[in-house]
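Morning F.,

Quick status update on the modeling queue. The single chain you submitted on Monday has been processed. Sequence for confirmation:
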Amino acid sequence: MNHEKIHLKQQVEMLWLFYFIWYLLEFLFHFMKYRNFLKAYKAISFEKEAYANEQNLNYLLERKFWSFLNYF
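Structure tokens below.
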């Protein structure tokens, strides 16, 4: 559940539409690089941030604006 809350925070920061555009472009870039759906998905910076912090229930309280860029 925390994983999805992190995504919601990311979406709000990027005004929802830009989140999905960035997500799709990053997925396509990684898919062309790896030619593998799962590797491309796991390489997306939004997913890296969410997976890395899903166990930390205080993460959203500590998280800085656009923190997903640290996982890019």
